TrEMBL record:
Annotated signal sequence range: 1-22
Name of this chain's protein: AraC family transcriptional regulator
Record's keyword terms, sorted: Signal
Source taxon at top rank: Bacteria
InterPro entries: OmpL37 (IPR058230)
Listed NCBIfam families: Lepto_OmpL37 (NF047447)
Organism: Leptospira idonii
Biased composition (Basic and acidic residues): 300-319
The UniProt record lists the keyword Metal-binding: no
Region: Disordered, residue numbers: 214-237, 300-330
Length: 330
């Protein structure tokens, strides 16, 4: 009998220890959701920051002796892109606060809500990217199609291929279940990356079509010594190489810096240098980091207010309800 008691005691002890070491599935799933929201916010921040209107440069005026320094230029944050990112960032922050307090029910509501807001932001961004990519490709097409430059035509063909692939990804995500936020975000993110590649092909096709034949590699004679020296030379990054070429062609009047959308002449022209920065995931010049600005405006108690119990009203002699945070109406 003592033997069976000992075995039962060991079994109960092992169950107790395994229970202590177990991880809550809800906690694990929320940890994954927090990581995905963070990655999606950081990814879409670059796109929203570049789509936002540029900041006005402050006039560099040297104050006279004894005069106060001029006030810095006011940040232009009154745009829909910043408001969308700010709302999603606030909801995600509130979910993280509840998660740290081990209140997984409230945390899931906030994090799931932030995921839905991010889904809406991704839809807006990918629609704008499709318009910009099509505008760049169609503006480069007329001169390239009528030329005998097969390399530029190949780059243009690759750009239209990626544009079509991104449109299919967008359509698939749009027609999927409205509550499959993670699936939609995955498709939209892949579509945005594909559209950035399509815009890179469009810019490369423009550059190659404007390059004289004597400057193209296939028309240049190279000896074995030249090839050996080229291997030893430090390679320049593609981003810097394309940017330097764009600046050179723009300064020499071979290319225009802005491209007007062919299908919509009233639309804002596209800046090739800004598009190039965005294609490589950089925030371009004269733009604010919207996520950094949104973090400065986070309200720590916003999530608690959403989930808190409504305040108890007080009634006056006439039966009108007055809440503690509200001033009595006259």
């Amino acid at each position: 009998m003592g033997k069976w008691k000992f075995i039962l005691l060991i079994a109960l002890s092992s169950l107790h220890i395994s229970h202590l070491n177990a991880v809550s599935p809800e906690q694990t799933n929320l940890g994954i959701l927090i990581f995905e929201n963070k990655e999606n916010i950081n990814f879409i921040n670059v796109a929203l920051s570049n789509l936002a209107p540029p900041q006005e440069e402050a006039a560099t005026v040297t104050p006279a002796p004894g005069q106060p320094a001029p006030e810095p230029a006011k940040k232009n944050l009154e745009n829909d892109y910043f408001k969308l990112l700010k709302a999603a960032n606030q909801t995600d922050f509130s979910g993280n606060m509840w998660y740290l307090q081990s209140n997984y029910t409230y945390a899931f509501r906030q994090l799931r809500g932030a995921q839905g807001e991010l889904k809406n932001i991704f839809e807006v961004v990918i629609q704008k990217y499709i318009e910009d990519a099509r505008s760049l490709l169609e503006s480069a097409a007329p001169s390239i199609i009528r030329s005998n430059d097969n390399s530029s035509k190949a780059l243009l063909r690759l750009g239209f291929r990626d544009l079509r692939s991104a449109e299919d990804l967008y359509t698939t995500g749009l027609n999927s279940s409205p509550h499959q936020f993670r699936y939609k975000l995955t498709l939209y993110k892949e579509g945005i990356l594909t559209l950035r590649r399509a815009k890179r092909f469009a810019i490369l096709a423009m550059i190659y079509s404007k390059t004289p034949d004597e400057d193209k590699p296939e028309y240049q004679y190279r000896s074995n010594e030249d090839l050996k020296e080229a291997r030893n030379e430090e390679k320049q990054r593609n981003y810097e190489k394309v940017r330097d070429t764009l600046i050179n062609f723009i300064e020499n009047k071979r290319m225009e810096r802005t491209v007007a959308p062919p299908g919509n002449p009233d639309a804002k022209p596209l800046d090739l240098l800004e598009q190039h920065d965005d294609n490589y995931g950089f925030i371009t010049s004269k733009r604010l980091d919207l996520l950094q600005e949104a973090n400065l405006q986070i309200k720590e108690t916003e999530g608690a207010k959403r989930e808190s119990v409504p305040p108890v009203p007080k009634f006056d002699e006439q039966g009108k309800a007055t809440y503690p945070e509200e001033a009595p109406k006259k």
